[in-house]
Amino acid sequence: MFEDKTYKRCACKGPLVDKKGDPVLNQDGTPKIGYLEKRCPLLKRRDHGSWYYSIELPPGPGGKRQHPKKGGFRTQKDAAAACKEVWDLAQGGVQVKSKETVAEYLRRWFTKRVDLKRSTRKGYQDHIERVFIPALGHLKMRDLRTRHIQGMFEAIWADNKTHQDHREAAEAARAAERAAHKAWRDCKGRPRPPELRQNWNAARAELRQARAKPRHITGPGTQKKMNDTLSAALEDAVTEKLISENWAKSVVLPKYVRPKPLVWTDERVARWQVTGEKPGPVMVWTPEQTGAFLDAVAEHRLYPMFHLMVFRGLRRGEVAGLPWSETNLTIGTVHVSEQLVAASYEVWEDTPKSESGARTITLDEQTHDLLRLWRKRQQTEREEWDRAYEEWRQRQREHPQPETDNTAVTQPWSDTGLVFTWEDGRAYHPEYLSQVFERLIKKLHLPPVRLHDLRHCAATLSLAAGIHMKKIQALLGHSSYSLTADTYTSVLPQFEKAEAEAPVALVPRARNQRESHEEPEPPDGESVEPEVPSNEPGETAA
Questions:
Q1: Which among 115, 204, 247, 348 is most buried, taking Cβ atoms within 10 Å?
Q2: Last residue within a domain, chosen from 225, 250, 275
Q3: Going by C-beta distance under 8 Å and a sequence separation of 6 or more, which residues neighbour residue 159?
Q4: What is the DSSP letter of 131?
């Protein structure tokens, strides 16, 4: 049965007395001075001291007594309410005596999450060490509330505003530096006036200072990921009875809308050519733009890989980690079961992003032929590499001295078993593939898309070709149908036009019928005379 015990105490010091009221003395007979606590005569005053609660709970593990107490309340009513809250939590099984802090719990929780992918663990660890622990780590788990988490995100929003100001200042400093450099470069006189160089140097110094300030913006998508990470940790804390509820679920964040692919229409391309700005973070080429890219890179070493991504929708890491053992050139299929993942330029092998990411994809005839040719090319490169390596080893045996030829093959061919490799068999770094692709589209002056957006091109082309959304989900390896449908709700403009005209054509209109029977009217200011047949063969009427 609940029975609260509240009392008032202070931090005043004075002569101490024992339970009988007799003074407590030191060894030399002088009165012992200490905290008076509940015995302070000034506690009768309303503004002196603070209220505490003390409560007896059922014994804990091993029969250990549980007697929580807490003070610092302004009124007796506040102390009694807090005491009742602790009692209710204890009755619900919450460990109200636990002293584990948020920092201690989050690190303990992260250690046991061995089920996470390596890339996911890196993201969780970053959120915990860089964001959660600095903001919340000092709190005890039993004291954590939604207001603390909300305050953490409010601090992030304040930092975002400051960082945005830094961005704008850096852009202004960059414009000033370019103007000062242009003035110095375009000066016709020789020698140039020294003040022009001084102005340029000063502008460069200001630009360096502006760029040194933090400019990273934590967007709504990243904030949602952070809260999802914290929510997952607190959900386990609820299970462990460290807290009564998942406080992260009540946090209010900026609305996040998953970006949908936009097609590079002529109007958007024209605007991009003027401003250099992309209409959205995820852009997709039209069939004509896709064809122009493939035609332009047909002689490039990585053309088979680009072709595979454009039409079959593999991810960057999936093509980089695709092994020949999972490629069936007899029937024309590839089984996607692993990928190369890169973070901070570190690379490791991992499974696809979702459980449905492991999938078998049927190749189109063109891609099938390209992979056959690529296989022959890779085998030829291996033979040439092995031959050059053996020649180098022979030279070393006959004349053991440092090799002066930097082009000499001094390492054997790397048998990685991968489909797309360097000439020596080494795997491509996924980030390198993105860099090559970016350089190519800049060189070709094509509207910018990311290498990952070739995957969106594959989905959009398949959708426009009439392939069912469920088939596209399987092609891309999405975890759910709704993810595919929500991402690819728009198709290419020419197909959208046909869909817009189809309902109009179904409605019969009297005006349309009349117009179909009427002869076309001549242009304004002109008249059409009836043609008079000639009486003589070969004669033209006047």
A1: 247
A2: 250
A3: 214, 218
A4: I
**332 shares its domain with 384:** yes
The residue range of the domain holding 58 is 5-91
CA–CA separation, 130 and 150 (whole Å): 17
* Number of other residues whose CB lies within 10 A of the CB of residue 117: 13
Same domain for 77 and 34? Answer: yes
pLDDT score for 527? 47
521 within domain boundaries: no
Please write down the HEC assignment for all residues of 219-262.
Answer: CHHHHHHHHHHHHHHHHHHHHCCCCCCCHHHHCCCCCCCCCCCE
How far is Cα of residue 59 from the mean position of the Cα atoms in its chain?
47
Are residues 165 and 201 part of one domain?
Answer: yes
Distance CA 93, CA 109 (A): 20
Flag whether pLDDT at 224 surpasses 80: yes
Determine, yes or no, domain membership for 515. Answer: no
Q: Residue 163 pLDDT more than 60?
A: yes
Same structural domain for residues 268 and 245?
no
Give pLDDT, residue 80.
85
Contacts of 31 (CB under 8 A, 6+ apart): 15, 16, 23, 24, 25
| Contact criterion met (CB below 8 Å) for 433 and 337 | no
